[in-house]
Amino acid sequence: MGRGSSTFLELAILSVLKDETPQNGYQIRKTLSGLCGSLLQFSFGSLYPALGRLEERAAIVTLGTGTGDSDFISTGSITGDSASKRDWLRDLVPQRALERSGRNTKSYVITDIGQKLYSELVEHVPLESERDVLTWLSLLDENSYATAIERINDRIATIAGTQRVKSRVSSTSQLSKSKISNVIDKRMADLAANEINFLKQLVLSLSNNEIQGEIASMNFGKDM
Question: Which of 101, 105, 176, 190 has the most CB atoms around its CB within 10 Å?
């Protein structure tokens, strides 16, 4: 997971904890799956480092570590105990079984610093693709819709400006281009036009407050 994805994951965690309800790692992951669907792919291997980074920045704090009870059961033999303990430790490392039972887990809650960081990430997390925009939108609340409209309009302007530059360059070198280059240019122009139209529809939906709950259920192609 690159830095951009890591930033989105940190925003996502803060979005889940924003209402100040304590949640453990398993609950956070489950909530994010509902919010983002297939938009934001991550594992416990990336979730816990992100939680650690946010804790280091005092954006979140932990409330406890559970009972600490062990699930290891002795088999009565040295060989059997070694095998059983090996399997038990392998299950313990990702903490999935323990988190599902609610034992031996940390609960996380957002701080005032975390609330401020959430707002900063909403305004500044990179939006470099249509998928970025949709992932970002799935993590916003209605109070952020004005910011969303402004940032999406900025994205539209960026795409349109890039396409104008590409069009001018293409028109001056048309004779030297191969057929495959022309096909690629046409496809990229079509994709840009489609994204602009889609983003304009999103702005209209946000303006009419009709977007809530729609993002995670959308289908996404490989070209996003």
Answer: 105
